[in-house]
Amino acid sequence: MTTTPARALIVSGGWPGHQPQKFAEIIQGMLESAGLQVTAADTLDALNDSDALRGYALIVPNWTMGRLSDNQSKNLRDAVKAGTGLGGFHGGMGDAFREDTAYQFMVGGQFAAHPGDVHRYHVDISATDHPIMRGLSGFDIESEQYYMHVDPSNTVLATTTFSGEHVAWIEGTVIPVAWIRPYGQGRVFYSSIGHDPREFEHPTVAELHRRGLLWAAGSLA
């Protein structure tokens, strides 16, 4: 007896500076190596069919900025409420569809700034007992250190502390880097790392995202 593999949808586009197509290739390879069947779309029209969206175990928004139609936003949110996972990273999910506050509520946060642009900073692990984070240690990464407006109901997996070097008045401020949350019956995972594809060459970063996406898809307990 054969088992039909879980299906994932990656929707890529938006601001080209975040190299959405390159990231789509990385994420597709990551998910396929874990046994998921992946559909890659480069148009938001992929969100037009509400019934089709509910057939996916995971949807990965990879679309910095841009704008959803009211129907696309509702279809996406309804699919996650019904049990489809939502997972993504950096601006592709956390700085997407800036005008859509209902989308932001589902994600659990929204990009506000990246003081200092790309620089080296430290990430601390917060939830060492969660299966996404088990066995992972804090690490340094060179990326945009996202300062985010974050829902306090999130389960925070990792954080970063701002030094004040670039903006003095935020010195010592701790901001979540990665979190999970429920949205209806769906699981949501987000990480603010992922400005440049080379960041996924860091083994801890790659494993964090792999596990987070699989958890959102229901493939990681």
UniProtKB/TrEMBL annotation:
Gene3D superfamilies: 3.40.50.880. InterPro entries: Class_I_gatase-like, ThuA-like. Residues 7-216 form the ThuA-like domain. This is ThuA-like domain-containing protein. It comes from the Bacteria.
